[in-house]
Hints:
By secondary structure, the protein is of the alpha/beta class. The chain has helices spanning 10-18, 20-29, 36-47, 99-116, 140-155, 177-180, 182-191, and strands at residues 8-9, 54-62, 67-79, 83-92, 122-127, 132-137.
Amino acid sequence: xxxxxxxxxxxxxxxxxxxxxxxxxxxxxxxxxxxxxxxxxxxxxxxxxxxxxxxxxxxxxxxxxxxxxxxxxxxxxxxxxxxxxxxxxxxxxxxxxxxxxxxxxxxxxxxxxxxxxxxxxxxxxxxxxxxxxxxxxxxxxxxxxxxxxxxxxxxxxxxxxxxxxxxxxxxxxxxxxxxxxxxxxxxxxxxx
Length: 192
């Protein structure tokens, strides 16, 4: 039986896909710093209104997949004479979402499938910035990306710092920029 600290957290899947180096610093050095974007997201999550038919922060885990996490919101709907449908909703503070957000949602769908022992082929990404939610159909490509990312996270080593994000614009909002120092490192690399 795996301990919780041996399971990959679903939010780490998103962190790793955003930037493996960010994931590395957070995981191995506990270097996450509170910045505006992180704090604003926490406040939005906490203050989100409640409504009937929702379960907030539903915890699921799978030893088989090697992952665990809390689904932000689980929408529960009664279906005439058929029981209930369960749809995960991932909430983001932004006005748009990215592939790593879709993969995080797919990870929750896979966890929920195992928990319910039935297919979960879609979920929603809710954006605080637009106050809208977007239906995401979970494809085999999403599922494979989840499995590949879990394997990559499990194989990361303390003595092998991942490279910087391909898109350095991601660094500007990053909460580990003080430790990662992408811009300073790029300058020093040019000097050598």
